[in-house]
Amino acid sequence: MRSDINExxxxxxxxxxxxxxxxxxxxxxxxxxxxxxxxFSAFANxxxxxxxxxxxxxxxxxxxxxxEEAYMAESAAQIFCKPxxxxxxxxxxxxxxxxxxxxxxxxxxxxxxxRDETGAWIAYVRVNDQNIRANRILLHLWKNEAKxxxxxLNYGQEEKILLEFLSTNExxxxxxxxxxxxTNRMRxxxxxxxxxxxxxxxxQITENGVFFLLNPLNx
Length: 219
What we know:
38% helix; four-stranded antiparallel β-sheet; elongated; four-stranded mixed β-sheet; Methyltransferase, Cobalt-precorrin-4 Transmethylase, Domain 2; Arc Repressor Mutant, subunit A
């Protein structure tokens, strides 16, 4: 355990000052390893991140019992995530209280799924300070990335409609695309996945939904 007399205390407080964001989350405690697994999944599937355990949402330091929280973190990563999520732990004493830092790197073995209360395995991504359920597009992309196969696209009317729409509009959702192309969801998903792999499109994930944009590198 590291002291807060100098460097450790300043380090933890500098993180707290940033507030919760895409790569930082505060937890008063780990009350449920299953619920914590969502955050592990989201960080590992997105850009990695850090959890500060023993810090309230408002940034106030509450402290935890490090051994108990470490055990819960281990359970979240090993039992409630599939495949297991790599992480590292560091504990600090700040204002006389223990704060546990859990660091989760971006994974090369995506997607990582978290088990929910029904026993279902669900993958998550991190959007701002929220853990969002990964959609089928992301799951297809991760699956194809793992295969590292080439991409073959038959450019037809449906592809043309999509690219023409995006030439005059900033973005489009999957449901919009299905409607204007008069196609089915499965085919629309296959088309956008291939165009993302070919770097023609980029994926934008927000709290309001998932959108597709023309890759600015191609403009």
